[in-house]
Amino acid sequence: MHQDLYQNKFKIKSARLHNYDYGQNGYYFITICTKDKELLFGNVVDEKMVLNNMGSIAYQYWEEITEHFDNVLLDEYIIMPNHIHGIVVICGGDAVVETRHASSLREREHKREKKYIGQYPQMSKISPQAKSLSVIIGSYKSACTKKIRQKFDIGFAWQSRFYDHVIKNEKSLDKIRNYIRNNPLKWELDKNLSENIFM
Predict the structure, then answer these.
(1) Which residue, among 127, 133, 136, has the nearest Cα to 106 in the 3D structure?
(2) Which of 12, 80, 114, 123 is most deeply buried (CB count within 10 A of its CB)?
(3) pTM for this structure?
(4) Dihedral (C-alpha) 60, 61, 66, 72: value to the nearest 10 degrees?
(5) What are phi and psi of 63, to 5 degrees?
(6) Contact 76/181 with Cβ under 8 angstroms?
(7) CA–CA separation, 188 and 199 (whole Å)
(8) What pLDDT, on the 0 to 100 scale, is given for residue 124?
(9) Cα R_g (the chain), whole angstroms
(10) Which H helix or E strand runs over 84?
(11) 3-state SS string for 127-194
(12) What are the sequence ranges of the domains in the chain?
């Protein structure tokens, strides 16, 4: 994963495919990091991830993604001390299930996007679409942030962006599944070299 300097800080260089519809059916490998890669979700003990209370919230809300989005299935995933790896499967469906965590966020985003696109119709092709990958991950991050801040009274935050990779075949899917499962085994290397987090 390439990184560039921006304002004297390393930033993730986008892996997004040009003109690719991230709302279409497919398998997507996702990595979400805490702000500044802060170790907040627990520890790796004897090469196994042990979640703390914050990590349990991240785990619970990840599990609940399918309750909020009827076009999503979850494949392999893991919560690590400062990041989450997961495979999100977008698989169709006609409606988003409105539930307690993400409904208000999606309503605000929809209103904002509708107003913006109305003013700048050329932006509609690149703005996040309903049930797209960006909306799904954005809703998850927002729900976790709100709950963790409420429960622990800290200024919890994620990195502003997330890494994604479109999985194109079974060989790649199996490789990424194994990478996710074995992530705790590589933690001693990954925690000191942040670029390793993104494969």
Answers:
(1) 136
(2) 80
(3) 0.72
(4) -120
(5) -60, -30
(6) yes
(7) 15
(8) 40
(9) 17
(10) strand 83-90
(11) CCCCCCHHHHHHHHHHHHHHHHHHHHCCCCCECCCCEEEEECCHHHHHHHHHHHHCHHHHHHHHCCCH
(12) 3-183
Per DSSP, the residues of 17-56 read PTT--TTSSEEEEEEEEBGGG---SEEEETTEEEE-HHHH
The per-residue pLDDT for range 12-64, each reduced to its tens digit, is 444 544 455 545 688 999 999 999 999 999 999 999 999 999 999 999 999 99
Distances in Å between the Cα of 152 and the Cα atoms of 33, 79, 144, 155, 188 are 19, 19, 12, 9, 27
Looking at the DSSP assignment, which residues form a beta bridge with residue 50?
A: 43
Average pLDDT, the chain: 77
Q: Which amino acid is at 112?
A: R
Calpha distance 195→123 (Å, rounded)? 32
Strand pairing partners for 90? Answer: 26, 72
Question: Which superfamily, per CATH, for 3-183?
Answer: Transposase IS200-like (3.30.70.1290)
In the numeric block, the tokens 């605000």 are attached to 108
